[in-house]
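Sequence, please.
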């Protein structure tokens, strides 16, 4: 099956040019001017951008958290991703305490297989860094799970100590893996949470007040120092929210260290003021790290423009506000009367490309090429999927989005496809939207209609990170 995408402006991380793209089967076969292909299905992209599909390297489908599970599974979550122009995700498998990594990986593959509509990779959340687990990391990398998330927060649940971090950093570098770090000082946060609750401060906004930006800055700096002590090994900070943490990334990058970080739309568009929404509505924004004061947003945009931040992911981890939505149990409401029991996370896998094109490119904060780079090309490189994914090139997977730069879209829970009963950006009008979304040569979304099918998505065996970004 051949498809010819004609007349569009092809946009990659480095170039913009008018051209046609011929897709043969699952791959990009030819790029050129006035291509001919008898019998091919034709897609007219005149006046549109032809970009590599978005790559979201931070999602949590069905994540178990605080007594419940994130409300999107691999079917609903990847379908929503496709509607928003994302054609690959990397989700986090979670190791149970003492559990072999292979078992956790297989459990997540079971969740994804037969459900995912787009391709997916897996990271591994490592909760117990025993000698056995450190040895198992090698098998994981060889079998395509080449990145490992560690937590410096959530004592007693996910948090690991500095010795464990140091061991994992050293091992990951030896075997061509990458450590992804949740950098918040969990010990200090725990004390602040206990003090707040003892003073009867129970409202959602106390989630933010007990997780100050300094706790993120400290942990980020400590993580990079540990990476430096381990021999200057690569380290990737996930969901960076605060200027305090960005300062640390910049410091270590300026020293020539392989220091990388992602931020997420919620930190670029929402702020601590959202926690003041009436009643219990502040719970919509309970995520970790929390939303920050508005001034941090400008710093993060500057960080993206200057390559101190290399990736925009989502940390998609939805929990419903009300019990019963599409059969979901009580989720955010678990924290009525105690902010520390509100499941941490918010939806975003569908809205990342919309928000960042509008807020980034239309608002002149980043260039069109930089947008493609931070939402697709660099995620593919750092997570070992390039050039199979993340670019428009001959031989790459035909994961292609035809993007209409003039279309106006209003974000709303009434029309979104994520399985969650609210949208943090409700009512926001954005310019630019995907009109055709192709995954490995198959049109899976066209003009807001889904043509994919559950289970067509494949597990991607990822390689080692490409670090010169
Ligand atoms: O609040 C968040 N971020 N929930 C998901 C788990 C994590 O730390 O990424
Ligand atoms: Zn995290
Ligand atoms: Zn996360």
């Amino acid at each position: 099956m051949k498809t010819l995408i004609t007349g569009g402006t092809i946009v990659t991380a480095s170039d913009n040019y008018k051209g046609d793209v011929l897709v043969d089967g699952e791959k990009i076969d030819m790029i050129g001017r006035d291509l001919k292909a008898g019998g091919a299905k034709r897609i007219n992209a005149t006046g549109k951008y032809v970009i590599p599909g978005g790559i979201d390297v931070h999602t949590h489908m069905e994540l178990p958290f605080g007594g419940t599970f994130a409300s999107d599974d691999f079917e609903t979550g990847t379908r929503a991703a496709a509607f928003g122009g994302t054609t690959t995700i990397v989700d986090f498998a979670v190791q149970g305490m003492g559990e072999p990594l292979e078992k956790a990986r297989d459990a997540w593959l079971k969740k994804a297989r037969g459900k995912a509509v787009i391709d997916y990779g897996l990271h591994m959340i490592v909760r117990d860094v025993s000698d056995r687990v450190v040895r198992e990391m090698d098998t994981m990398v060889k079998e395509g799970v080449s990145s490992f998330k560690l937590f410096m927060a959530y004592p007693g649940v996910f948090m690991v100590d500095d010795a464990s971090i140091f061991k994992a950093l050293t091992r990951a570098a030896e075997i061509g893996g990458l450590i992804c770090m949740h950098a918040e000082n969990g010990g200090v946060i725990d004390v602040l949470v206990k003090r707040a609750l003892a003073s009867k401060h129970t409202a959602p906004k106390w989630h933010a007040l007990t997780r100050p930006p300094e706790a993120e800055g400290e942990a980020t700096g400590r993580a990079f120092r540990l990476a430096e002590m381990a021999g200057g090994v690569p380290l990737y900070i996930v969901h960076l929210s605060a200027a305090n943490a960005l300062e640390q990334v910049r410091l270590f990058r300026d020293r020539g260290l392989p220091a990388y970080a992602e931020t997420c739309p919620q930190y670029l568009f929402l702020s601590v003021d959202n926690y003041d929404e009436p009643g219990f509505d502040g719970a919509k924004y309970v995520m970790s790290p929390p939303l920050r004061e508005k001034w941090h947003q400008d710093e993060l945009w500057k960080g993206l423009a200057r390559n101190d931040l290399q990736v925009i992911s989502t940390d998609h981890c939805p929990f419903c506000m009300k019990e019963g939505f599409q059969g979901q149990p009580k989720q955010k409401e678990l924290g009525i009367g105690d902010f520390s029991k509100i499941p941490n996370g918010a939806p975003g896998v569908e809205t990342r490309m919309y928000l960042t094109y509008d807020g980034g490119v239309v608002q002149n904060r980043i260039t069109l090429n930089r947008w493609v780079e931070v939402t697709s090309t660099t995620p593919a490189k750092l997570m070992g999927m390039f050039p199979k994914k993340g670019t428009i090139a001959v031989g790459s997977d035909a994961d292609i989005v035809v993007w209409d730069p003039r279309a106006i879209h209003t974000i709303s829970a009434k029309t979104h496809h994520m399985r969650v009963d609210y949208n943090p950006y409700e009512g926001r009008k954005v310019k630019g939207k995907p009109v055709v979304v192709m995954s490995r040569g198959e049109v899976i979304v066209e003009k807001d209609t889904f043509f994919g099918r559950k289970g067509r998505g494949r597990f991607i065996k990822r390689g080692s990170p490409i670090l010169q970004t």
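Residues 60, 182, 239, 287-288, 315, 317, 344-345 surround N-(aminocarbonyl)-beta-alanine (ligand 1) (CB under 6 Å).
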